[in-house]
Amino acid sequence: MTDARVAGVGLTHFGSHPERTGRDLFGQAALRAFEDAGVPREDVDALNVGNFMGSITENQGHQAPLLAEAAGLTCPATRYEEACASAGVAVREAVKTVRSGEADVVVAGGMERMSHLPTEDVTAGLSTAADELFEVRSGMTFPGAYALMARAYFDEFGGTRTDLAHVASKNHEHALPNEYAQYQRKVSVEEALDAPPVASPLHLFDACPITDGASAVVLVSEAYAAEHDVDAPVAITGTGQGTDNIALQDRDHMARTPAADQAAEMAYDDAGVGPDDVDVAEVHDCFTIAEVLATESLGFFEPGEGIEAAREGVTTKDGDLPINLSGGLKAKGHPVGATGGSQIAEVTRLLRGDHPNSEHVADAEVGVAHNAGGTVASAVVHVLEVDA
Amino acid sequence: MTDARVAGVGLTHFGSHPERTGRDLFGQAALRAFEDAGVPREDVDALNVGNFMGSITENQGHQAPLLAEAAGLTCPATRYEEACASAGVAVREAVKTVRSGEADVVVAGGMERMSHLPTEDVTAGLSTAADELFEVRSGMTFPGAYALMARAYFDEFGGTRTDLAHVASKNHEHALPNEYAQYQRKVSVEEALDAPPVASPLHLFDACPITDGASAVVLVSEAYAAEHDVDAPVAITGTGQGTDNIALQDRDHMARTPAADQAAEMAYDDAGVGPDDVDVAEVHDCFTIAEVLATESLGFFEPGEGIEAAREGVTTKDGDLPINLSGGLKAKGHPVGATGGSQIAEVTRLLRGDHPNSEHVADAEVGVAHNAGGTVASAVVHVLEVDA
Question: Cα-atom radius of gyration of chain A, to the nearest Å?
Answer without folding.
Answer: 19
